[in-house]
Design goal:
The complex is a heterodimer of chains A (about 375) and B (about 270). By secondary structure, chain A is an alpha/beta fold. Chain A has 11 helices and 12 strands. Chain A has helices at about 10-25, 30-45, 55-70, 95-110, 130-140, 155, 160-170, 200-210, 225-235, 265-270, 360-365; strands spanning about 80-85, 115-120, 145-150, 175, 180-185, 240-245, 275-280, 290, 295-300, 335-340, 345-350, 360. Chain B has about 270 residues and is mainly alpha-helical. The chains are: A alpha/beta (about 375), B mainly alpha (about 270).
Chain lengths: ~375, ~270
Amino acid sequence: MSQRHKSVETKYMEDRDAVLKGLRQLDRRTFLKVLAATTGAVMAKSLMPPHSFQLVEVASAAIDKASSASGMAGKPPFTFAYISDTHLYQRTLNQRFVRAAVKAVEDVNALDPQPDFVLFGGDLAQLGRREELDLGKQILSELKAPVKMMVGEHDWFYDLGDAWQEMFGPPNYSFDWKGVHVVVLMSVHEKDFWTARKMTPAERMQTVAGLDNGIQSRFEVGDDERKWLADDLAKVPHTTPLLVFSHSPLYKYYRNWNFWTDDAEQVQAILKPYKHVTVIHGHTHQMLQNQIGNISFYGMLSTAWPWPYAPTGLPPLTIQMNRADPFDQFDGLGDGQFNVRTDGLADKIYNLWDRNPVTIKADYLISHGKTARPPAPQFASY
Amino acid sequence: MSRRTIAFGTLAFATLAVGAALIAAAMHPIREIFAQERPPFPTHQALAAKNGGVVVMLCDGKTSMEVKGLKAGQQMTHQQAIEVTRELMAKWQRQHPNQKWQMAEQMAQTDQSSEPVPAPSAASGADVAKPGETVPSPETSAKPPAMGTQQGDTYASFTERDYKIWKAQTDSFVAEGNRIFHDAKELGSTIGVSCDMCHPDASNTHPETYPKYQVQLQRVALLRDMIDWCIENPVKGKALDPNDPKLRALEAYIIAQRKGVALDYGKH
């Protein structure tokens, strides 16, 4: 393209860079004033594109002011990052997913300040083989911050968790972190569908790896682990904020694809007495949020491939991501960060690769969408 | 109707009677009831050959000719068979001037009589329907669609069984596409990736929006172009020929998942 003719996008980005360069000379207070003024002008002209830099900055500035005014939260007491659903094959077979996992590790390592820990959200491997898990462990070992591991169904159903547990320990555990009680669940147990069908371990794994085959059972936390959870929480006061990690969403979204936990209501009942509960899950490979009673749910992004929204059951509070561009390997994928506030609630930043990041404030979910609503996507997904 | 009453009467008598012989005798009328409701398929008695050849009959069961030089059990060549059938149809047409084969045969079935199909010159000639008319008949009410409702009405002559066969054939084509869609090896993937990994139930493939200008390809694309693009790129296999049975099956499966969705070509 000729240098004399610039596209609309190029001009926009140049203008944006010029403005931001100028603004860097200003102190924070003046910066916010100028930003508010320019955004006001843009909004008045109805030129406000969702996800534009103006809107995101002003929204967060406004909420910062609001929360400091109410004395609720200033700086978060701690942050943690996540990487989820890397679905690694052996390195010799598939470099695509390896590249993506490495990219996520580099992202998290570039965070300054570093997060307190990195949650891995499950589905490290694609077909549960030891070589795949080894590769994943090796990639995650590059992380500077400590890693907390969660298991996914792709890690489990080749050898029913033998290799994974050998490498990473028990699949469900809890710990306390800066006033928050953190629980990691193994939520992808399945009732035996393989023995009657005389499936080999590889066939069992392949069946679980498919979303739409209808042969496998539904995910569940199960009786034993629900009892473990109740026992674990018995010593935790109801005023303590809870942070729960599960691979599958701990609610019922879409049964046919196992975007689902069969005993979700029973798990929710155990969490119900607590004032602030945040559940963070993998598996669905999409921006996904839900609020059920006292529980805020956030879905994590995958690094391997994005999933379309299911035809029914999408929680209405979900801020959707536009459908991904198949021609861009990294579109619709990414990693993310949670800023845990002093009250134990968490703001989530979706770090979408090749797109602007999207922040979902805890206030948005606990107010059932009445405040702090992030910008809506430009296009509906099909 | 009266025959059925008699049959039931016999059955009632049989149940009252004691003795195996009488019950055995009663089985006969039961068979008769079934036989009455589902008559056996008609068979045509071939005529004896007069000149040492083989007699071939048209499916009206009447028009026939002898193929000279053909021995019983021998097969005709394809060309010979075409000539024979052509000759048979010509013979039928000579016997039934101004009639159409399909209409005449349907009338013969509706009539259910063994009488020869009347030629238009015969007394009942006035009853032969012109296109768009139906033949007035006392027995038309519970019969299959009457002849002559519409000239060349192909589908009127198919049965429930035909529809079942077609559905089974179509479904197995779709099922084959389903299998390939979920199978990285069948797709020729060199990296273990299959279509369903990003498109469970073929979601987000929106086949109803093609053809459309595919911005990333800088040209108008059909669904198959995108299938091939996906096979070449994320799946890392070799693009399939447009006539490859695998590509056709994939297309069938993807489209089948969107049954009922309005066509909306060009949509982005």
